[in-house]
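Revision sheet: structure tokens.
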Amino acid sequence: MLNENPRTVEEAYISAGSSTNLRVEADRMGDADILIAAGWAPCMLGGQLTRLRREWDGCSKPPLCSATDAKLVMGSLKSLGGVLDALTVWAQAKRNPEPARFALAITSHWLSDTCKACQGRGNESIPGTPKLGRTCKKCGGSGKAAVPMGQDGRKALNMLDHCVTRAGASMRKRLRASMGRD
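Predicted:
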């Protein structure tokens, strides 16, 4: 029987990162093959971002994360430093006046872009009731927080998404080729 929901390359990569069996076998694809394909990806930032997203999703966060809570949670993420360093260098190249602050704001938004005012529902809640009221004024009903740092922030977020997509595509291509399915 075929697996109707095969793992994505990103899921396989995250799983391979904690594997204890890194044996390369000629007749089947294993975790070692996935890690090798990730190492060959042209955009190393894409792999770091994939790991960072997994760490963020796996850590326990308060439902409404304040700035202080976010800093505490983010401090426990192993992949955060590499991502912040890369994004800081990118911001410096773009002549951003505060590259480190820019990198932290963009990374925080990339990890969690939910509107804090409405908790991502798009509508304000009516105090004392489980009902929703009018459209949230902060997000205009989208449930998404405003992109920080204006147009430069939007460009950075697009670049981060592009890096993740490019790394995943490179891994898929290499894995297909290694298994003779190209």
